[in-house]
Design goal:
121 residues, mainly alpha, Helix Hairpins, 4 helices
Length: 121
């Protein structure tokens, strides 16, 4: 059992919310890609509500933007963990970082694909 896992109930939920906010602040302060995706969502989410699309289409348009934020958080976490272990170049470290980047590329492609299918449709 981890010594960091001691809280239960409401205290655990409040701690988890605080850690989540800390993570969002760290990502926003330290990751340009995360800030760019936030800006993209600031544009796309209102646009999805302005466009004449069905509620399901609107939900998909918003969801893919938020998914890209989630993927960027995971990508940044992988990069931070790899850098914490060692700043030396290693093929496995490169693979881990490249795979995180590939995941983000796919999530951005998904935004373009979903929006194109709905708008051109």
């Amino acid at each position: 059992m981890s010594p960091f896992k001691g809280q239960t109930g409401l205290k655990r939920i409040l701690n988890a919310a605080g850690y989540s906010l800390d993570g969002l602040r760290a990502a926003f302060a330290g990751e340009a890609a995360f800030r760019q995706l936030v800006l993209l969502n600031v544009v796309l989410v209102p646009l999805a509500f302005w466009l004449d699309v069905s509620p399901v289409e609107r939900a998909l348009m918003v969801a893919v933007g938020l998914l890209a934020l989630i993927v960027e958080l995971f990508n940044s976490a992988v990069e931070a963990a790899i850098d914490r272990i060692s700043l030396d170049r290693h093929p496995l470290s490169k693979n881990a970082k490249d795979m995180g980047s590939a995941a983000q590329f796919i999530s951005l492609s998904l935004i373009a694909l979903v929006w194109a299918i709905i708008l051109i449709g």
